[in-house]
Amino acid sequence: MIVSATEDALLLVEQEHHAHLTGELAALLPRGRGDHAALLAAARVHDNGWREADQAPTIDQAGWPHTFATIDDDAYEAVWRRGIARVAEVDALVGLLVGLHGARFFGVRSSPGMRDLAQAERARQDRVLAELGLGGSWEELPGEVAEPSDRIALLDAVSLMLCGAFADAITASVGDQRYTLTPGPGAGALPTVVVRPWPFVVAPPPLAVTARRLPRAPLASSAALQEAVAAAEPITVRVALA
Fold it and tell me: Per-domain residue ranges for the chain?
């Protein structure tokens, strides 16, 4: 779950809605190295493993909804195990790109389960690279895999910022090209994002993300949060790139 705040409300965006926005952004990119269809598919489904977690959100000790960054290691491990497996069963290359994306964040988690997942996923990535005849390894990815993986990471960051996950400027790189993402003027809970240099071939069409608005107040239990989310009508929030 992505959680941002206004003066009087919390805005909650499910990870799969953020991923759908990531896929919309991917469709605006020029073709680069690698399989473009796999890039588009991986961008759209990269967070599919969060589906179950976002259907049963939980609170932290202070009563606020957990975000993708604050859920515990066991829940985080379960998210990525099922998310990678779900995609890999359908398409090996798309599953490889989703696994590579998830593995970017495994190092910040230190539980035994997360360490086991990181090790197993790196071994799986090497097997898939060999089976697909791509060569290289997770440590030295071939360009036709490294570039789309970097592009997904860039678009993921853009989409997360559009969904209110980041309030400060961040950077992302595709190969040697470095991009700066900055919340734009008038930024609120779901800001405009300024991307420099511009990575897209066209100006984006109108963009939006589905969210739920809750009162900005701590909750008594995870069950109370789940009831509040279920009762909140989905809203469409317009977002923009500049």
Answer: 2-239
Mean pLDDT confidence for 5-29? 95
CA 233-194-154 angle, to 5 degrees, is 80
Dist CA 201 CA 218 (whole Å)? 43
Q: Supply the pLDDT for residue 103.
A: 98
Assigned token pair, 185:
């003027």
The pTM of this model reads 0.95
Q: How far is the C-alpha of 77 from the C-alpha of 147, rounded, in Å?
A: 26
Tell me what pLDDT residue 161 has. Answer: 95
Mean pLDDT, to the nearest integer, of 220-229? Answer: 98
Whole-angstrom distance, CA of residue 226 vs CA of residue 99? 29
Instruction: Mark out the alpha helices in the chain (DSSP H runs).
Output: 15-26, 36-45, 51-55, 73-88, 92-103, 112-131, 143-162, 222-231
Neighbours of 218 (CB within 10 A): 14
